[in-house]
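User: Could you write out the 3D structure of this protein bound to oxa(dethia)-CoA? I've included everything you need below.
Assistant: Certainly. Input first, then the structure.
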Amino acid sequence: MYKSKIIGMGYSVPENIISNNDLSKIMDTSDDWIQSRSGIKERRWATNDVSTSDLALEASRAAIKNSKINSSDIDMIIVGTLSSDYFFPGVSAQLQEKLNLKTIGAFDIKAACSAFIYSVSIADQFIKTGAANTVLVVGAETQTKLIEKSTKGRDVAVLFGDGAGAALLSRSNSESSILSTHLHSDGKHLKSLWMEAPGTSKDSWVNGSIDLSKFTPKMNGREVFRNAVTRFPEVINEALDANDLDINDIKFIVPHQANYRISEAIAKKLNIKMDKVISNIHKYGNTTAASIPIALAEALESNKISKGDIIILAAFGAGFTWASAAIRW
Ligand code: UT7
């Protein structure tokens, strides 16, 4: 078996900054409520002319540049997203064309906030077996186009933002590598965080037409919170156990940016200080599949991570799905 490692990362966020005060002008909410409940100060909302594939393309180009490879070396594309430009096909096929690549394999992964780690795990398996050498893995969303921007939808609307992050994974001949990945799901919580339409379920349709009231994400925030604070530490501990590591061996936890209070609960359960937990939620909100690669790319950009450091990526989200990846840099 071979090993894989991340050789370069990039990210892209829309220019359009929406502050908590901006939101309070269009719905009954406040800067104080949002900051105290989630730690979010502002987020980016893609304008109508910017779609998920545009952000994915910019993030991918930055990752290709940072990894110093030729884009022709890429032999697979995996995109994690729940807000693809079209219902089908996926953003991955658009990237293949926009990056001017050969007719390589390209597919999307719909595992919500866990989609980036799911995609890294798949890329790792392909590289380990020798079936692929260099895989472009992207998490990208413009999900705020789907949210209900009114008091009715405020519980969801204040949390989410848009963006994209990309990683290039390639075969490793050194200690630097993906050490392990662990993926989980529990479908009984499907309706705690979901968007019912457009879909093929009979419930999505009324008299032959899509029920537009179901064409927006819905969330039981408390249920998500309760499960997240259990599953995050659980899957991080799973990564530690699988690699015979102690939490003190870890330089950083890079959690999916769901809510600052969830990150604080993770730190408390793992008995670590918050300076070991990467956080950028105050700037971008929850960008679903994009949050981990954006946070990781920013941490690399500011030289927080050095060769030999061990980090753990961890995610939890709709499905429910949850996952972790332990990486030696
Ligand atoms: O990637 C995973 C994605 N999702 C998450 O991570 C979400 C996890 N859950 C959470 O982060 C929290 O549950 C929320 C931040 C969504 C909500 O915080 P909470 O402390 O659980 O509040 P709540 O839902 O229990 O609502 C408390 C009150 C309610 O009013 P009443 O019934 O007490 O009068 C809500 O109607 O706050 C009200 N509320 C708001 N008020 C101002 C709900 N949303 C808002 C809002 N602004 N945006």
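The longest strand covers residues 3-12.
User: Perfect, thank you.
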